[in-house]
Write a structure and sequence with these properties.
The protein is mainly alpha-helical. Helices cover 32% and strands 5% of the residues. It contains five helices and two strands. The longest helix has 15 residues, at 41-55.
């Protein structure tokens, strides 16, 4: 199970979110339809995320920082978390700044609680991101917006 979850997280760090809210349109186009039925990818991701939440396996060691350049990512929503995840996997030291009180962005503000489990600290299980361990993720840090004429 740990290996399967790691394989999913290689390309997409939010198995819990996709397993709960994705419309899984890719299953309609799945090549497996030509043989029997499509792979139930949404349900597989949901199962793996639920197993991870229930069994709480040890997180892998933080990815070694092999790059000297420090990267700041502004915004701890799904896009910012994914960006920070990919940069951390590439060996960059990442600091992820979030203006809100917790990471997750739209995962907290727009998805109802009944769609998936929250940890005791209030974070959705989808926000658990092993690749970000060892990197900074301060919350309640609004980054000032400059009025540069762009909208």
């Amino acid at each position: 199970m740990v290996e399967a979850l790691a394989l999913v997280r290689e390309r997409m760090p939010f198995a819990a979110a996709c397993g709960r809210i994705c419309l899984h349109r890719c299953e309609q186009e799945c090549n497996r339809n030509q043989v029997d039925e499509p792979i139930a990818i949404m349900h597989l991701k949901r199962f793996l995320a639920d197993w991870d939440y229930q069994h709480k396996p040890a997180l892998p060691a933080p990815v070694e920082k092999t790059r000297d350049e420090r990267i700041a990512v502004i915004g701890g929503g799904p896009a910012g978390l994914t960006c920070a995840h990919d940069l951390a996997k590439a060996g960059y030291p990442v600091t992820l700044f979030e203006a809100g009180s917790r990471l997750g962005g739209i995962l907290h503000t727009c998805i109802p609680v009944f769609r998936y489990t929250r940890h005791k600290n209030g974070n959705h299980q989808a926000v658990k991101n092993p690749e970000l361990s060892g990197n900074e993720s301060p919350t309640d840090v609004p980054i000032a917006r400059q009025n540069n004429g762009l909208h």
